[in-house]
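Supplementary Text 2. Reproducibility record for the structural model of the 464-residue chain.

All settings were left at their defaults, and a single model was retained for analysis rather than an ensemble. We include the record here because the model underlies the residue-level annotations in Supplementary Table 4.
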Amino acid sequence: MVSLVRSTESFRDRSGEIYVDGGRIYRSVNAAAASSYEILKDWAFFENAQAAGFYIGGEEVDVGLLGRASGDPRYLVEHPRLSFVSYPYEWSFAQLKAAALLHLDLQIFALDRGVVLSDASAYNVQFIGARPVFIDLLSFRPYREGEYWTGQRQFSEQFLNPLLMRSLLGITHNAWFRGRLEGIPASDLAALIPLIRKFSWNLLWHVVLPSHLQRAAGRRAVDTAPGPLRPLPKNVYRRMLLSLRNFIDRLKPADDAPSAWRDYADDNIYVAGEIERKRGIVTEFAGKLRPRSLWDIGCNTGAYAELAIQAGARHVIGLDSDPQSLDRAFQRALDRSLPLIALHVDAANPSPGQGWNEAERKSLKARADGDALLALAFVHHLAIGRNIPLDWVLQWLVDLAPRGLIEFVPKDDPTVRRMLALREDIFDDYSEAAFATSLGRLARIERVEAISQSGRKVYWYDRT
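Retained model, structure tokens:
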């Protein structure tokens, strides 16, 4: 029996709503958008955009499934369900850049077929592994001769400006974007950029001028209407999109010096044979469970996630807070077509429920039901690095998935000694005995594997 529930994330769009029924996803097309939908359907635009790899696709189903839904729905489309929904404030620079290029490529593809996007929301892009895909069919409508790009400001705030923060200033966009869900205004970015750097054509056009216009609009009297705009030729519209695409394609992070953790997978404290022992445990674990969805907490560049996928994991959600490691994890997933999405998340402050009524953007835990978990060389970063009680860390991890591998790193380990070198050791409760006792209260400890001379051990737990 179908029982559709309206999603809390779709209320802003008056053209239609998102509905869920268990594992199935539907989008309604209300009367206001029905005409545009019918035209684009007759043009075979949706199927062509899907065939080109831009659009997620969907299949029209009986609108009667909605019953007495609001908005006068005329059509109902079922979409493929994504393995995981992520948000732009969780994406690495490389992911956000890929999403921006996808959006512009889709716009050019659409414009060539007499279609435009009515908005430029980054939330309309999702990732299947490392491949970005557009998910909102209601953003498409027929092109009107002479019209301007109505989504330009939104594109700048949600794609361009966050990328420029990292490219020009070496500042990651994640915390800023999470604090302002609509993106980063041109006025904020312009205030950060040194004057001498503002005299490039692209920055003048995309940052400085929009910032000036925003300030001018704020000073304009409420009853002052702007004058009519001259029609914009379609070929100029297209060239503008292509120019912006080429500009974004050349952007690179300014902070390109190796971070403390970018090369950790290749340069670490393990000696000969220890890495292979650890890799073998991960391979055995993933091969035995073959999880549908696996968390990799502290995923670094995705090396262990790749091992788990090769052994049978169907999808991996990686979390890390090192920007350069995440860019490399994204490139790994892209190069090898891995079902891995690696996200910028501070485990001590993971993404909460946000937006209207704290439900418009769901919390990290609310978006995935993990079957299994890897937390390798991770616990000490929270327990010692962030002063979070050891038993709290373990409780959080075990709550994420019923089975997992958690690595314990003792105080004698060189990594922990470095962490404690410049601070007082106040962590009397941080010991292997305390670790084993706390984990044993939460789940059954299946196995314990020693993996290094320094005393590192991997605990295999099961709470089912």
